[in-house]
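hey
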């Protein structure tokens, strides 16, 4: 990008140029502190009057820095050894005043005034920058020229959502960013030599600016030959297969970044770069040669981790990878994971009464240790540069909160495909597993009418399950962690059949589809909505007594509620439920007495074969800490029900509104949501269980209990959808 100022002296007066020169000269910290105040600890550094320039940007533009929290806040500061103390330098402080003034002028406020309030004490000092911003310079004319030679589609893509637009404050940084944005977008669409020149004119009296961007797209080009350097054990032909940018394809700088990402994600390289081969490329060429430079990773890698989760209690994981296993760039990966540590047998340390209190009532899913051990052989670029083959063998025990616990061993084979141009991930997986699913007797009785111990034992025994799963996605959002524009669509179909090796008891078809849209209402306000639909079909199985019912394993049924679902409900709380109570307690309290002792009644989610969820959310910047904090308002609606049960399970749509906070973090937005739920708990059948005989008795009348509270709180990381 190049800058052309048609009237530079009109933009910066002599006084401004002198100030800028002084600021540049003092931009590095002084080698020798001034004697004045060098022993004073900075206990406070505040900003007042900065409405248009963020405090974070101002703090990053100066040398003077506030002491750390423990060094400036009582009673910690009195200890003297906590926190990092930062000392006051008169010379740096005076230069910082000039820096702030120059920053404001570059941000579009030529009349900004910077004053300071300094409070000196015997051993410390408090500083306040007081800013009078004045009237800003407004962009009243904005034009982008030189794009007539490109297609209308490329032109629209190059000009959408530019950082600086007509009517904005004339910020020089955003002006440079706008030119760079157009340049990058042209380079991503076949113009490797694209450049943008900037010219502008300002009126100090009228406080206006006229901005013109002259684009020079250059000659459209395709990818030419590829040269690989640094590959020792991995075949260079395999390196070329991993590239998104391939010979004959329209040149895109983004494809170079994606190619570099593919090289890293293959796990074969510790360093990788994909760039234009500048020794062979000249401006105006219609073919772009590429240079790929790699440094291979060590042949082996070990990893381990510890953590905590509200639904896992304590957890740990480990893994070992062998690279280039048996040649042809294959990877052997062995992974392990264990959770429910501290509450699940045999590692029950009593944490259900403390750290993992949220799992105290989950005796089914959290009563035993959950684990997973898997060995996978991965072959990138299998039969095609776009394919990856994964062969796996595994053993695991997993669970769902208060719903089921499944233990199984098996093997799987997956072919995943993603084309570089269309970005359409596809996968096809075959899994053959032997395992059993444990659920409450009430769950089997509720929707299978399997209330006898013999039927429950039959459905809970180890069964063979062979499934074929096909999935597809269309990711078109502009940011995977915090999207603000675009959409994401996905679907997954799972079929279990005796033709695929399943037991005759385990046959079903399961289809789920998701669609999420992100739409910017203004530059800072985003409206998003999400729809999820799902359905399951299954043939009938014959039970004792000749009755027939459709059996869907509990781990394949739909459950609703939670931080990424209908947020007015806790996890798995939405949808069909049954209530269970022990025979001893029921004989003591009776049906009428259970309403007064809700904690003695266990609520069990049984899930359903039909799911429908819709969410809508608007996110707006917070009036303070705008760069880090956002506010959200949302409405969630959804239902989970069982088709084919008549009036026993009807579709009951539940709507729960709420508000939330979003705090930006490197891992995505940390999220706090609170939703209002005006509904009682679902109507459900009451089952009286006899722990001695293992039988359950169905009472003729359904019951409904009151909710403990009408507000549901969720903490999570990442956007809800």
């Amino acid at each position: 990008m190049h800058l052309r100022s048609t009237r530079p002296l009109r933009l910066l007066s002599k006084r401004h140029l002198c100030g800028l020169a002084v600021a540049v000269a003092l931009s590095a910290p002084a080698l020798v502190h001034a004697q004045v105040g060098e022993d004073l600890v900075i206990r406070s550094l505040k900003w007042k009057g900065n409405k248009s320039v963020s405090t974070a940007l101002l703090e990053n533009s100066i040398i003077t820095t506030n002491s750390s929290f423990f060094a400036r806040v009582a009673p910690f500061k009195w200890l003297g050894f906590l926190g990092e103390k930062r000392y006051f330098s008169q010379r740096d402080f005076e230069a910082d005043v000039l820096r702030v003034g120059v920053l404001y002028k570059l941000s579009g406020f030529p009349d900004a005034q910077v004053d300071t309030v300094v409070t000196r004490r015997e051993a410390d000092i408090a500083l306040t920058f007081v800013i009078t911003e004045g009237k800003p310079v407004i962009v009243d004319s904005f034009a982008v020229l030189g794009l007539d030679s490109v297609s209308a589609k490329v032109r629209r893509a190059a000009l959408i959502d530019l950082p600086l637009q007509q009517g904005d404050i004339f910020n020089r940084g955003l002006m440079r960013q706008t030119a760079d944005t157009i340049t990058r977008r042209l380079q991503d669409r076949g113009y490797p030599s694209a450049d943008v020149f900037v010219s502008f004119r300002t009126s100090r009296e009228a406080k206006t600016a006229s901005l013109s961007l002259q684009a020079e797209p250059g000659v459209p080009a395709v990818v030419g030959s590829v040269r690989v350097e640094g590959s020792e054990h991995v075949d260079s032909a395999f390196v070329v297969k991993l590239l998104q940018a391939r010979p004959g394809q329209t040149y895109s700088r983004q494809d170079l970044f994606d190619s570099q990402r593919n090289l890293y994600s293959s796990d074969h390289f510790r360093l990788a770069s994909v760039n234009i081969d500048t020794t062979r490329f000249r401006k105006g060429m219609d073919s772009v040669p590429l240079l790929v430079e790699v440094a291979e990773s060590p042949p082996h890698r070990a990893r381990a981790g510890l953590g905590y989760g509200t639904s896992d209690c304590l957890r740990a994981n480990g893994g070992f990878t062998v690279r280039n296993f048996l040649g042809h760039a294959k990877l052997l990966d062995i992974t392990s994971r264990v959770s429910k540590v501290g509450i699940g047998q045999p590692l029950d340390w009593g944490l259900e009464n403390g750290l993992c209190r949220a799992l105290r009532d989950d005796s089914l899913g959290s009563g035993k240790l959950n684990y997973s051990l898997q060995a996978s052989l991965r072959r990138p670029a299998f039969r095609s540069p776009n394919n990856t083959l994964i062969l796996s063998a595994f053993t695991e025990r997993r669970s769902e909160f208060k719903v089921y616990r499944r233990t199984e061993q098996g093997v799987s084979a997956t072919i995943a495909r993603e084309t570089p141009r269309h970005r359409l991930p596809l996968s096809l997986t075959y899994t053959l597993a032997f395992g059993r699913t444990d659920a409450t007797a009430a769950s089997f009785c509720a929707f299978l009418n399997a209330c006898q111990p013999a039927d429950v034992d039959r459905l809970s025994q180890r069964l063979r399950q062979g499934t074929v799963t096909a999935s597809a996605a269309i990711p078109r959002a502009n940011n995977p962690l915090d999207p603000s524009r675009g959409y994401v669509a996905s679907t997954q179909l799972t079929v279990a059949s005796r033709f695929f090796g399943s037991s005759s008891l385990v046959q079903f078809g399961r289809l789920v589809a998701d669609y999420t849209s992100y739409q910017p209402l203004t530059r800072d306000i985003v409206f998003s909505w999400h729809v999820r639909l799902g359905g399951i079909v299954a043939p009938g199985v014959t039970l004792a007594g000749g009755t027939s019912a459709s059996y869907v394993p509990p781990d394949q049924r739909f459950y609703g509620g939670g931080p990424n679902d209908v947020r007015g409900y806790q996890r798995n709380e939405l949808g069909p439920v049954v209530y269970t109570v022990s025979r001893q307690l029921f004989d003591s309290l009776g049906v009428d007495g259970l309403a007064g002792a809700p904690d003695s009644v266990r609520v069990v989610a049984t899930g359903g074969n039909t799911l429908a969820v819709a969410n809508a959310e608007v996110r707006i910047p917070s009036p303070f800490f705008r760069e880090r904090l956002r506010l959200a308002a949302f409405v969630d609606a959804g239902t989970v029900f069982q088709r084919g049960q008549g009036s026993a399970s009807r579709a009951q749509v539940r709507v729960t509104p709420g508000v939330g906070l979003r705090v930006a973090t490197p891992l995505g937005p940390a999220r706090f949501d609170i939703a209002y739920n005006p509904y009682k708990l679902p109507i459900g059948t009451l089952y009286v269980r006899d722990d001695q005989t293992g039988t359950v008795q169905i009472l003729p009348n359904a019951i409904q209990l009151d909710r403990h509270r009408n507000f549901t709180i969720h903490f999570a990381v990442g956007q809800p959808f």
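The domain at 222-296 is CATH 3.10.20.310 (Ubiquitin-like (UB roll)). Residues 1-37 have pLDDT under 50 and may be disordered.
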